[in-house]
Design goal:
This protein has 402 residues and is α/β, with parallel strands linked by helices. The chain has 14 helices and 15 strands. Helix 2 crosses helix 14. The chain is globular, with a radius of gyration of 24 Å. This is GDP-fucose protein O-fucosyltransferase 1. It catalyses: L-seryl-[protein] + GDP-beta-L-fucose = 3-O-(alpha-L-fucosyl)-L-seryl-[protein] + GDP + H(+); L-threonyl-[protein] + GDP-beta-L-fucose = 3-O-(alpha-L-fucosyl)-L-threonyl-[protein] + GDP + H(+). InterPro entries: GDP-Fuc_O-FucTrfase, POFUT1. Keywords: Carbohydrate metabolism, Disulfide bond, Endoplasmic reticulum, Fucose metabolism, Glycoprotein, Glycosyltransferase, Notch signaling pathway, Signal, Transferase.
Length: 402
């Protein structure tokens, strides 16, 4: 049988099969996953999840997944952008740190952005030939550029992958609504995969809050084994046996300032999750945005009685009200708990497992847990909602969470 060889510089012969094996092993060791991806002839969608924190980014992710599906392009799963105390720049956390890939693949073509940059980009999106898409010039309107790396987290995000852009494309008047308009065909006609194998966006190709029709896509977001395990261990080891109530208290200083605008922006942030996308179920109020002590204690007490709960789990961005809740429910023999060093994703996984969850209607963080529970068919409620009939008014204004 004929053998094929490559010669080293010193004249020694090496069997090509051995070289191939060593090369393949090297690829597997350096790749972010053990999976080898083929080039998708339909192209790819990349974006920076550069608006808001985890709750907002999750809303945008669901819309981006629907957008990529409509265009039949593979979605490069971006890392989650986090802002940590003491860090001058944003930190990029791989998508797979928090979620599994396999459930998403059952809906559409996806791959970690780390794998895209390592395996695919050198062929279809090489350095020196990288285009970025935005609706209109960003930053200086006279620059005729998307300025995709201007500011934080934009710059740190793309720098994570050593990406620099050589050209900007303004896609207006096209938009991301592939549900109510024939936008999928419009994008394919104007930006074919042959001419534009990669559509890289300065921000998510999706609206905020998540469109009503895309809420169902949350079923494909499944926590990673690590997040699942940490949530289960906390419930098993920290909470007493029996039912428990999960509550989310959004009450930090930045939230207090945001709630001051609730009267002028009744569809603020994720309000549609309880008020409806056309405000058909009422109008946002200060009490819904920043519930009073009385509202919190009253609704929590009712939930404890309704579900014969033995404990309360509290997730919060600021004041967990632990001492106050303990004092209030001591006579009911109900314990109150929080994670000692909260991790937002683990908090959400625990809230998703509670027997009953009381959410903040306006918060996109609450909205994540509410969508997960809706998919599972388990009950949730909102602070200060439903409202009394005389308080219900119609409004059609919208806003985005910062």
């Amino acid at each position: 049988k004929q053998q094929f060889y490559l010669k080293r510089e010193n004249g020694e012969k090496m069997n090509w099969k051995i070289i191939f094996c060593f090369t393949l092993l090297s690829m597997l060791e350096t790749s972010s996953s053990s999976k080898i991806y083929n080039v998708d002839p339909s192209g790819y969608v990349l974006y920076c999840p550069c608006m808001g924190r985890f709750g907002n980014q999750a809303d945008h992710f669901l819309g981006s997944l629907a957008f990529a599906k409509a265009l039949d392009r593979t979605l490069a799963l971006p890392p989650w952008v986090e802002y940590r105390y003491g860090e001058p720049k944003s930190v990029q956390v791989p998508f797979t740190t928090y979620f599994k890939i396999e459930p998403l693949e059952s809906f559409h073509k996806v791959m970690p952005m780390e794998d895209f940059m390592e395996q695919i980009a050198p062929t279809v999106w090489p350095p020196g030939n990288r285009t970025v898409f935005c609706y209109m010039p960003r930053g200086n309107p006279d620059s005729e550029s998307c300025n995709a790396k201007e500011g934080n987290p934009f710059g740190p995000f793309w720098d994570t992958f050593d990406v620099d852009f050589n050209r900007s494309v303004f896609y207006g008047p096209l938009n991301y609504d592939v549900i109510h308009h024939n936008m999928g065909d419009a994008w394919r006609d104007k930006y074919s995969s042959e001419d534009y194998p990669v559509l890289a966006f300065t921000g998510a190709p999706a609206s905020f809050p998540v469109q009503e029709e895309n809420r169902r896509l949350h079923r494909y977001l499944e926590w990673s084994d690590d997040i699942d395990q940490r949530a289960e261990e906390f419930i098993r080891n920290a909470l007493p046996k029996g039912a428990f109530i999960g509550i989310h208290l959004r009450n930090g200083p930045d939230w207090e300032r945001a709630c001051e605008h609730i009267d002028s922006t009744p569809s603020l942030f994720a309000a549609a999750q309880c008020l409806g996308y056309r405000n058909e179920y009422g109008r946002a109020t200060q009490e819904m945005c920043l519930p009073s002590r009385e509202t919190i204690l009253q609704q929590t007490r009712k939930a404890i009685k309704d579900y014969s709960a033995k404990s309360i789990f509290v997730a919060s961005d600021s004041d967990h009200m632990i001492d106050e809740l303990k004092k209030e429910f001591k006579r009911m023999n109900v314990s109150v708990h929080r994670m000692p060093n909260p991790v937002p994703q683990v908090d959400l996984a625990i809230l998703g497992r509670s027997n009953y969850f009381i959410a903040n209607c306006i918060s996109s963080f609450s909205a994540f847990a509410k969508r997960e529970r809706d998919i599972k068919g388990i009950p949730s409620g909102f602070w200060a909602f439903p409202q009394k009939p005389q308080n219900i008014q119609n409004s059609s204004s919208r806003s985005d969470e910062l």
